[in-house]
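Incident log, support desk, overnight shift.

02:14 A customer reports that sequence design results differ from what the structure should imply. Their input is reproduced verbatim below. On-call engineer (initials T.W.) acknowledged and began investigating.
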């Protein structure tokens, strides 16, 4: 029986250490799987959730792994404010939120999901945001779903979201499907905010068929959670602490010659590396933009599937206010005119529940991105329409927190579209795309080239950390199968 490793404190920079064992408890109590005999090395490109997990699985089976990460830290699109330096983020010392803020993934879907289980096993406290805390906007008014009650337009939008499963296989866009379901223009922003933006784009660009199919595949309890006091990136770093030693940071891979034996990898600085098999876990944007040259070219099955998924602009803005004017019990605000999602990130975890995080994907994110710091003015104006004082003056502009010396507004913009090696938010299915297209996208090539990462998930969780982790399990099995068959 494998002995459970002693719990130890792992240093994790600004986020402070989590007290975690390096392996999942569930793994630690199981009989170890037989070691796989393989003399070669598996190169993993990208050290986000998928890359770290696939490397971890292979490493625990005794297979030699070597990870190449383009950026300066591991985690990919799981990136926490506390883990960033002030050179890149000079606003950090001025932020007053007394809870971890996230630049990328900020919620966990399903307490018993693959990602949720990591937090359960490590006993990391989480906060649940119940649907009763969700507010929706129509007629420039934001109010909780219960307050909209039987308003027919609200009910139509809400039923449309609840019936997503029934659209499995449809070739329509979310917008087209909602219109045929009778959702009025008055509630169109709610549909966009609940059924497109969280999946990576806007309702006219998002295909509903694959979203419906995903709903039929999900097996977790669907709870909507976030970590109460630990940065998500720290949780990943700790969970995969045994893999960090194999990661080479600041090493973007620009070409992979998988026709050669051994396979030859070239990094941006011209250094070459060799490996016997390669797992590519980079964001779909990197592949779609041909930022890695493959020799031979990737087969049509992979590239054809790639074209069926979008990877749009995505932006996160964190705003701190002097006062909560949106309501202490309001967790999320969906569907304003300009911003699909406001998240009251301090709700339930701090008496200072005065922070809003904004997440926008798709064409609207591209517009905000083009505005630079002007995006903050656009967001405040959007909020001012919803929340006013007795003199009809917008509350957001009045209550945005200011730096006491410079009187500058306190906010942080994370523009993922401008972030090298990520270049947007996450993969989403275009109209007509099916879950089987994700399978095609991940088809291994010549038993030596494999694909993992959220875009390649076939478990119904594409576009999320759950999807990235599930793809790692699928991919590790594919690699092991080829090794066991002597391929
Ligand atoms: C703003 C935002 C909000 C989100 N919110 C949520 C959420 O609330 N819940 C949720 O579950 N998910 C959310 N997601 C999605 C989630 O973050 C991703 O699905 C998941 O983290 C992807 O993991 P991955 O390993 O597939 O890819 P990544 O995390 O992107 O990892 C891939 C890695 O490859 C590296 N790379 C790229 N090119 C190269 C190269 N040429 N050579 C070497 N390395 C390279 C990248 O730097 C990156 O580190 C959000 C994403 C964003 C952007």
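02:41 Re-run completed on a clean worker. Output:
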């Amino acid at each position: 029986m494998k002995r459970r490793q002693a719990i130890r404190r792992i240093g994790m920079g600004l986020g402070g250490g989590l007290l975690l064992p390096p392996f999942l408890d569930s793994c630690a109590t199981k009989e170890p799987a037989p070691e796989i005999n393989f003399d070669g090395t598996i190169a993993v490109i990208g050290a986000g959730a998928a890359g770290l997990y696939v490397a971890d699985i292979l490493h625990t089976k005794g297979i030699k792994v070597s990870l190449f990460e383009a950026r300066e830290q591991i985690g990919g699109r799981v990136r926490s404010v506390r883990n960033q330096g002030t050179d890149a983020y000079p606003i950090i010392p001025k932020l007053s939120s007394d809870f971890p803020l996230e630049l990328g993934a900020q919620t966990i879907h399903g307490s018993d999901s693959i990602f949720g289980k990591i937090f359960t096993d490590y006993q990391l406290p989480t906060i649940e945001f119940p649907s009763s805390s969700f507010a929706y906007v129509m007629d420039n008014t934001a109010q909780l779903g219960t307050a909209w009650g039987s308003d027919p337009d609200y009910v139509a939008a809400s039923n449309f979201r609840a019936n997503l499963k029934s659209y499995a296989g449809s070739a329509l866009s979310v917008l087209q499907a909602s219109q045929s379901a009778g959702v009025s223009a008055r509630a169109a922003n709610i549909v966009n905010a609940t059924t497109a933006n969280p999946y990576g784009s806007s309702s006219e660009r998002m295909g509903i068929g694959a979203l419906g199919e995903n709903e039929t595949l999900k097996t977790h309890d669907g709870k909507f959670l976030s970590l109460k006091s630990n940065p998500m990136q720290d949780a990943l770093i700790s969970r995969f602490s045994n893999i960090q030693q194999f990661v080479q940071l600041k090493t973007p891979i620009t070409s992979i010659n998988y026709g050669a034996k051994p396979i030859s990898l070239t990094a941006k600085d011209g250094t070459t590396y060799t490996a016997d098999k390669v797992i590519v876990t980079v964001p779909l944007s990197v592949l779609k933009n041909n930022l890695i040259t493959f020799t031979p070219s990737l087969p049509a099955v992979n590239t054809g599937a790639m074209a069926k998924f979008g990877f749009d602009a995505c932006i996160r803005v964190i705003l701190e206010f002097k006062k909560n004017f949106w309501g202490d019990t309001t967790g999320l605000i969906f569907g304003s005119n300009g911003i699909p999602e406001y998240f009251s990130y301090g709700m339930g975890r701090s008496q200072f529940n005065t922070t809003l995080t904004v997440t926008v994907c798709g064409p609207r994110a591209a517009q905000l991105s083009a505005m630079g710091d002007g995006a903050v003015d656009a967001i405040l104006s959007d909020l001012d329409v919803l929340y006013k004082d007795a003199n009809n003056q917008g509350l957001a502009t009045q209550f945005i927190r200011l730096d006491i010396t410079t009187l500058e507004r306190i906010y942080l913009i994370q523009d993922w579209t401008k972030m090298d090696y990520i270049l947007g938010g996450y993969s989403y299915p275009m109209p007509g795309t099916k879950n089987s297209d994700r399978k095609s996208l991940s088809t291994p090539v010549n038993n030596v080239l494999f694909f993992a990462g959220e875009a390649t998930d076939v478990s119904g969780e594409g576009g999320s950390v759950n999807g990235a982790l599930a793809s790692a399990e699928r991919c590790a099995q594919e690699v092991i199968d080829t090794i066991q068959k002597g391929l």
